[in-house]
Design brief:
- It is a single chain.
- The chain is an all-alpha fold and 186 residues long.
- It contains 4 helices and no strands.
- 80% of the residues lie in helices and 0% in strands.
- The termini are far apart.
Length: 186
């Protein structure tokens, strides 16, 4: 009888080992990881939870997938279903956060572009004001320049032109008494 019990215990252990080996094969096919890698990941999950280590959203999703696989290996269907539901909810939240992050990045970029536009408009207005000042000064200079040119041209014409030259009956008078033509414009 003891021998029969021993055989039964041994055969049940063999069946358990067979079930474990089948579960390990399932893990490798589902996750693409070895059983040892899964156990390491579960140890990392525990360490992260106990020591409150910050992890990325992708790492949380990976931990939840591996915890769900471990629950399936342990044939704890209630826990596996709960983990599956939590993983799906977490994935939805992560996706929503990703969309919000994208919207925040778009908003930040929009504000940055608005700021650049305001700066460009201010620069343009400042440059336009400089140009207007320069153009105004050049215009004033150009307006006053013909007077200067006309006066200097009149002076040089006075000396060389036949207008204002003394006639033969004015021979003894000084050059300052000669009259300049006032109606000639150059």
């Amino acid at each position: 009888m003891i021998a029969a019990m021993s055989v039964l215990i041994t055969s049940s252990r063999i069946l358990q080992i067979g079930a474990v080996m089948q579960a390990i094969a399932t893990i490798q096919s589902e996750l693409g990881k070895s059983f040892h890698e899964l156990l390491d990941s579960i140890a990392q999950l525990r360490h992260t939870a106990v020591h409150r280590v910050r992890v990325s959203a992708n790492k949380v999703e990976q931990f939840m997938t591996e915890a769900e696989s471990l629950a399936n290996i342990l044939h704890n269907n209630i826990c596996a279903r709960m983990l599956s539901r939590l993983r799906l909810e977490a994935q939805q939240v992560i996706d929503e956060l990703g969309r919000n992050k994208d919207l925040q990045e778009i908003d930040a970029r929009s504000r940055e572009l608005d700021s650049l536009e305001c700066k460009a408009v201010e620069d343009m207005l400042r440059e336009d004001k400089k140009y207007q000042t320069l153009a105004s000064a050049n215009l004033e200079q150009a307006i006053s320049a013909p007077d200067t040119i006309q006066h200097s041209a009149s002076t040089s014409e006075h000396e060389t032109s036949s207008f204002g030259r003394p006639s033969f009956d004015q021979v003894g008078e000084s050059a300052s008494s000669y009259s300049k033509p006032t109606d000639i414009v150059y």
